[in-house]
């Protein structure tokens, strides 16, 4: 029997996602909770596990396509109900028809708990399977039989299409392919995409002969792969993380009155402290960088000035007595700001480990939605790009963000004498509705003082 897996809401009330990469193909065997696909939401790239065990029947959405939550993305044949493809398809349609007659509530079934989207319930009702008939398939002009009314609030699956037919979005990847498992295995072994074939078997199913004929024929070049020679322009769709980031930055820049203050700091002692920390056994298995001490200094400044760690709601100011420290990270898909939860409660080795793991996941695009929400204050390290400073835009929902520039040798006056020192530039942007110039200056001054003399972190913590 065929079963459809619909795109779940992976958290935060997301409504759509892009299919980034399939880890399975038609004909593959899958187990419950096996990772089958990577999707990109407006917040992160998430791996989805399979809720069924069986053989992949069809990938109903191609890579690069964006689909709504609740739309079917893959069908799996679990081996129950015999080998008849038509009967399996009919059983699938029957299973997915909600029972809304006379306003009666549908029976709820609990799906297995799967990593990535938790417990889901589905309002479905199984109707008795109709006996298979030998009547030929209806022609394209034949009117469809009447269907029981369905509530608009519940998604209705599209009827199965013959092999080679294309569904609403026009993508070949959304075709539901009819083929028996041995044929699927043969296609997989020969590298043939079943969705590109037109079946000659019963009800348009693909046969062994169809697969063998496809191997002998030259493969067409996909339309997406064709590029005009000498093209002078390239168009990149704005979607996923990049689209969400753009919308958030525009909303932040034109809703919160930004003020930015600057401070040059002698961080020679901080660089020496970093060198010494790297030699300690507590930090043997973690990465120690200047960012660790910058983070610790900012957390300490937040404890001294709690109003810098707040949210403006329009009706009230919510001061957070915990620090979920955001770290802005540039990725191939755009800027994301994952955060370390309760960073203020961590020891220095714990904070170093959390920062290292978070940045690795961010660069690999593996951050979970929960890691990308709930931040209270952010650091952005523009120095890694060889930049001295910048004017950072507030992460939405926060009232302050600290930018750290590159650390470089500069002439500096020390005890009345000119010397070469390690110097960086700090830039603090803040929301002037919550943070006035005095508070912003105190916070920036405290962070700078602790980076000039790291022992102050111990005294002020």
TrEMBL record:
The EC number(s) attached to this protein equal 2.3.1.-
Tell me which InterPro entries the record gives.
2-oxoA_DH_lipoyl-BS, 2-oxoacid_DH_actylTfrase, 2-oxoacid_DH_E2_comp, Biotin_lipoyl, CAT-like_dom_sf, E3-bd_dom_sf, PSBD, Single_hybrid_motif
Q: Name what cofactor the protein needs.
A: (R)-lipoate
Please provide the record's keywords in A-Z order: Acyltransferase, Lipoyl, Pyruvate, Transferase
Start and end of every Peripheral subunit-binding (PSBD) domain?
A: 178-215
Residue ranges constituting the Lipoyl-binding domain according to the UniProt record: 2-77
- Which residue ranges does the record annotate as region Disordered? 94-167
Q: Low complexity compositional bias: what residue ranges?
A: 131-145
Matching entries from Pfam families are given as:
2-oxoacid_dh, Biotin_lipoyl, E3_binding
Q: Give the UniProt family note.
A: Belongs to the 2-oxoacid dehydrogenase family.
Q: What is this protein called?
A: Dihydrolipoamide acetyltransferase component of pyruvate dehydrogenase complex
């Amino acid at each position: 029997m065929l079963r459809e897996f619909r795109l779940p809401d992976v958290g935060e009330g997301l409504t759509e996602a892009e299919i980034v990469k399939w880890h399975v193909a038609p004909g593959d065997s899958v187990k419950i909770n096996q990772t089958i696909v990577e999707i990109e939401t407006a917040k992160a790239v998430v791996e989805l596990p399979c809720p069924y065990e069986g053989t992949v029947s069809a990938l109903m959405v191609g890579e690069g396509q964006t689909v709504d939550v609740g739309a079917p993305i893959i069908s799996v044949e679990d081996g129950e109900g015999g080998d008849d493809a038509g009967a399996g398809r009919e059983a699938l349609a029957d299973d997915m028809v909600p029972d809304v007659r006379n306003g009666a509530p549908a029976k709820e079934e609990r799906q297995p708990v799967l990593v990535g989207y938790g417990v889901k319930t589905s309002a479905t009702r199984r109707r008795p399977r109709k006996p298979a008939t030998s009547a030929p398939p209806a022609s394209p002009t034949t009117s469809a039989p009447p269907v029981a009314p369905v509530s608009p609030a519940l998604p209705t699956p599209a009827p199965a299409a013959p092999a080679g037919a294309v569904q609403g979005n026009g993508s070949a990847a959304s075709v539901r392919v009819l083929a028996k498992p041995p044929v699927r295995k043969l296609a997989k072994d020969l590298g043939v995409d079943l969705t590109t074939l037109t079946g000659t078997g019963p009800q348009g199913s693909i046969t062994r002969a169809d697969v063998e004929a496809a191997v002998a024929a030259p493969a067409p070049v996909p339309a997406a792969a064709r590029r005009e020679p000498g093209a002078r322009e390239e168009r990149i769709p704005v979607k996923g993380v990049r689209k969400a980031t753009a919308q958030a930055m525009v909303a932040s820049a034109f809703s919160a009155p930004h003020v930015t203050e600057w401070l040059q700091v002698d961080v020679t002692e901080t660089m020496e402290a970093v060198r010494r920390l790297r030699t300690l056994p507590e930090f043997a298995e973690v990465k120690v960088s200047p960012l660790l001490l910058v983070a610790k200094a900012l957390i300490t400044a937040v404890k001294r000035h709690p109003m810098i760690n707040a949210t403006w709601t329009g009706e009230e100011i919510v001061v957070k007595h915990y620090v979920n420290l955001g770290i802005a990270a540039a990725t191939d898909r755009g800027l994301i700001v994952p955060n370390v939860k309760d960073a203020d409660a961590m020891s220095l080795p714990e904070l170093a480990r959390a920062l290292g793991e978070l940045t690795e996941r961010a660069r690999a695009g593996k951050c979970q939605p929960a890691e990308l929400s709930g931040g209270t204050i952010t650091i952005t390290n523009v120095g890694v790009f060889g930049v001295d400073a910048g004017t950072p835009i507030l992460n939405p929902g926060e009232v302050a963000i600290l930018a750290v520039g590159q650390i470089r040798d500069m002439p500096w006056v020390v005890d009345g004498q000119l010397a070469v020192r390690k110097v960086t530039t700090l830039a603090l942007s803040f929301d002037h509705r919550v943070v006035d110039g005095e508070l912003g200056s105190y916070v920036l001054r405290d962070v700078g003082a602790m980076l000039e003399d790291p022992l102050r972190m111990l005294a002020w913590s």
